[in-house]
Amino acid sequence: MIATAARREIVVGIDPARDWHLPLAWASDEAHRRGIGLRLVVAVPPPHRTRQVDDAPRMAALRLAGSEALAAGHEWARERHLGLDVATDLIEGFPVPAIGRLSRQARMLVLGSRHLSRTAEFFSAGSTVVPVVAQAHCPVAVVGNPEHIMQESPYLVVGIDGSESSKAALALAFEEADLRGAALRAIAVWQPPVFLLHDEEVALQAQRRMLSEATAGWSQKYPDVVLSHEIPIGHPVEELAEAAEHALAVVVGRRGRGGYSGMRLGSVVHGLLHRAFCPVITVPAG
Q1: Rounded distance, CA 34 to CA 231, Å?
Q2: What is the predicted pLDDT for the residue at 147?
Q3: Residue 286, helix vs strand vs coil
Q4: How many CA atoms, within 13 angstroms, populate the side-chain half-sphere of residue 272?
Q5: For the residues of 68-84, what is the DSSP string, one character each?
Q6: Which among 135, 128, 139 is positioned nearest to 257, based on CA atoms?
């Protein structure tokens, strides 16, 4: 894997058939904050290989729509942040593997989301979010709603469970909070097992110890980020989504690599992609 420091672009997937302004705005702001380049990508699926159907007109229409969306997005992003380095790519290939390959060099991928139900998502030919998140080699931001602007101080939420991927998520969450001048709520949800072998307070103490150990040292590196520890009791998806209701984003780690369909994506990540109404940033283990 390429070192994070060497990744110099934010890559945003553009779907010409849907409104791309929200994910592009988020990606443009992220690239501007970091002082790095932005790459807009449209993937055009390959033609149908049949003898009965001439697919050339459909392919020409897809390429034209993709080119027009890229040109409009390029102009829109440059107007949003003057001087932003913006590049465009029209790629021939299925969206999931095409965008997934770009994750090897990208600092972050940004995708839009329609908040499909799990059933609708499974049967949607245009659904790329889950499989891309499952396979990506870099963090992926899924933007289904605008960042919340509240009168209270801005904050991000990061889910911590002691895994290597959650440690990677914590590193990115601190970086994002520092860039945005936001507070950070580190949350370790405790879900009581069906059969509790130890006293509940013992289990909660173990969660507190894990959370303290995971966050140790980060406040020294990012002294301007106000950090809080929280250990709610309940289901991780519901608790994280509730905590992030007014957050700028919720950041979670992603363990392992899912298959092409993305059906092996972790249940917490998968749940948040459907449940959270703020941008969800997933981070693979280093």
Answers
A1: 31
A2: 65
A3: coil
A4: 32
A5: HHHHHHHHHHHHHSTT-
A6: 135
- How far apart (Å, rounded) are the C-alpha atoms in residues 277 and 144? 7
Instruction: Specify burial of residue 92 (Cβ count, 10 A radius: 0-12, 13-18, 19+).
Output: middle
Q: Residue 109: what pLDDT?
A: 97
Token pair for residue 222?
């990012």
- Closest listed residue to residue 281, CA positions, set 124, 166, 187: 166
Which residue's structure tokens are 């109404």? 277
pTM of the model: 0.88
Contacts by residues 93-98 (CB-CB < 8 Å, ≥ 24 positions apart): 93/43, 93/44, 93/45, 93/46, 94/43, 94/45, 94/46, 95/13, 95/43, 95/45, 95/128, 95/132, 96/128, 96/131, 96/132, 96/135, 96/260, 97/260, 98/41, 98/43
Average pLDDT over residues 49-70: 83
| Digit-coded pLDDT (tens) for 153-176 | 899 999 999 999 999 999 999 999
Residues 6 or more apart whose Cβ sits within 8 Å of residue 161? 188, 210, 236, 253
For the chain, the distance separating the N- and C-terminal CA atoms, rounded to the nearest angstrom, is 8
Confidence of residue 149 (pLDDT cuts 50, 70, 90): low
Would you give the DSSP letter of residue 263?
T
